[in-house]
Write a structure and sequence with these properties.
Helix content: 10-25%
Structural class: alpha+beta
Number of strands: 5
Oligomer: single chain
Radius of gyration: 15 Å
Order of helices and strands: HEEEHEEH
Shape: globular
Distance between the termini: 24 Å
Strand order of the largest sheet: 1-2-3-5-4
Length: 175
């Protein structure tokens, strides 16, 4: 497996996170995307986002309602409802998860990181396009309990500051 290059960042604007329901049995082979899927629209650039990393198979962007500074989502570029959808997509986005996690911890001076993915509405999945949350953690807010609870929307200026810090100021457009 090739080591992903964390300098492949292509930042843009922020996006909300919500969408329709899952379909565990559908395959996405050859499908460009779901025209009703928020994350598919981010992949195509129809909805702007702040991209911190991307490769051939995956896209990582800042969450506009972050639990902690630098909270990012990593998604497959093809439409996949969740982790259990066949064919499996975790292996194809694993290099992007690795590269993005390392980028966030390194560039944001984080003391740790949580990795989280929910499958189904009962588990808290709100956007039915497979995604992995990468949540940088800092010594002043340790433990899982400080992760759980309502999260306020991020200020545009804070998202821009995080994007500049993670990408080295290389904001160059949409996906």
């Amino acid at each position: 497996m090739n080591t992903p290059d964390p300098d492949q960042a292509v930042p843009t604007q922020a996006v909300p996170s919500q969408n329709g329901g899952p379909d565990h049995n559908s395959t996405s082979e050859g499908q460009q995307g779901d025209p009703n899927c928020l994350f598919c629209k981010i992949v195509t650039g129809e909805i702007p986002s702040r991209i911190v990393y991307q490769d051939q198979d995956a896209l990582a962007f800042l969450d506009i309602g972050p639990f902690h500074r630098g909270h990012s989502l990593v998604i497959p570029k093809r439409h996949v409802a969740d982790l259990l959808t066949v064919p499996a997509s975790l292996p194809e986005i694993a290099p992007a998860i690795d590269a993005t996690a390392r980028l966030l911890v390194d560039r944001l001076d984080a003391d740790g990181l949580n990795l989280l993915s929910s499958v189904g509405e009962v588990a808290g999945q709100e956007v039915f396009h497979f995604h992995v949350h990468l949540i940088p953690r800092y010594a002043n807010t340790p433990g899982l309990w400080s992760l759980i609870g309502p999260k306020p929307a991020a200020e545009e200026s804070e998202l821009d500051a995080v994007l500049a810090q993670v990408t080295g100021g290389q904001a160059t457009g949409s996906a």
